[in-house]
Each structure stands twice: as structure tokens, then as C-alpha cells.
Specification:
Blueprint: E1 2-3, H1 6-27, E2 37-41, E3 51-54, H2 68-82, H3 112-123, E4 132-134, E5 143-146, E6 149-153, E7 160-162, H4 164-178, H5 181-193, H6 202-214, H7 224-227, H8 236-250
Antiparallel strand pairs: 1-3, 2-3, 4-7, 5-6
Helix pairs in contact: 2-5, 3-6, 4-5, 4-6, 4-8, 6-8
Amino acid sequence: MRWADPARWGQVGREHVKRETLACQLLVDSGLPVPVLIGSDPDGTVAGGPANLLTWRPGHSRLDPLSPSAVDALARAAVAIHQQPVPRSDRPPVFTFRGPGGPQVPEWSNRPGLWRRAIGIFHAGVPPTPYGLLHRDFHLGNILWQNDQVSGLIDWAETSWGPPDLDVAHMCSDFAMMHSPAAADVFRTAYLRAGGQLDPDPDAAAFWTVSDILGFLPDPAHILAAVQPARPDLTAPRIRAGLENLLAVALAPGRRSSPIT
């Protein structure tokens, strides 16, 4: 059950319930391992707060390094989400960016110039990348596994309409923080190999990667509360370094078609 305490979540909680309801309805015949919606109380009339009752999915989340076959399975699931046909009348709301509206160079960074370049790219504006269905919170904690097979795609509260690049960028950020930028690139490559479509323009690719990374500011270490029980080896400096190193890769010479001054 998803239940949103109205005193804490207000309209945001109602929106989460509505978006999850829509996602379950859109994907009910997709063949994807998405929970089935049993009932919805978007106004909290019965449950005392906006709520959805969903079927249980088997499996468990994984924050350990994934095998090549598991990465391929994850990539195929992402492609299937993004290729799902959605009638114009059923489209979810267009995505919004995470993080502060006016991102600032983080105080913990020793590479402020890197972040200034990223902020400049973000403020240059959204590229004309094609849109489709997004999970919009596509990270390792929202994937369930049985061995190396994806057994559950959960937490559709932020379902949105936008570029597939955003979901891929968010998963890549997670791989970079949990493991390494190299692991992020393995996932991105697997996504393309599975038939996924990302914006081929290097400037657009940099924008979507940067926009997701900036969404973790002012400090990506806030994710530690959720991940440390499964990964006690993770620390704030390690989380920060993983994200910053991913940013450095995204802005490295040769990754963009034009320099940022």
C-alpha cells in the first residue's frame, strides 16, 4: 500500500497516488513486472489520506555490482518502459527538474570549475529531445530482482512525460555513486544495445546528464540514509566523488560538440 499522510504530503501525496495509478493502468498489459492496481483512494475518503493498494511483487533490491546479464535485463526493462505507446489523452504530466531552482557550486567540491560549467549548460536551456513515458525515479532501489532477472519495477509515484535520457541519466548517477562511472557507462551502453533511443547530439546528452546530477545538490550524501543498511561501505565522500567523477566524464573533451566557456 502507498499511503500519503495528508498532514505531511498534502497535494504532493495526492499527485503521487494519481501518477502511480496512471502508470499501473498504462502498463497493465505491457508484460513488464509492474504491480497491478487493486484499488485507489486518491482523495483519502476511505483511507484517511491518498492511497493505492497494489499487488505484491516478488524479489529484492540489489545494490551490489550487477553481472552483465543483470545489466542487460535492466536495460531491456528500461527500453520497454520508454517504448510503451501512450495515447495523447493519457499522457502523464511533463517532467520537472529536481534539486534547487538555482543550483550553486557545492561547498564540498574541490573542482568548482567543473560545477560552474555544468550550471552553465543547465541554464542554456532544454534541448528538443523527443519525449515518451518515464518512470522518473529510475534507480537501483526501485528495481526488484530474482537472481539476475528483473522481477519488479516499483514506485511509480513520479511517472512523467519526458525524454528517455532522463531515466537513463538517473540510473547512471546511481551506478556512479553506488559503484563507479564505468559501471554507469556499461548500463548506458547496454540500453542502446537493447534498442533504446537517446538523443545523439553530444550537447543534448551533456544537458540531460548534467540536469540529473545537479538534481542531487546541495549534497548527494542525503541518499546514505536509504542505502547504508545494505551498503555500510558507502560514505559521504565516496558518494560525492562518484557523482562528481561522472560529471567530469560527461564534460570531458570529446564528449561535447562545442566548448562551454
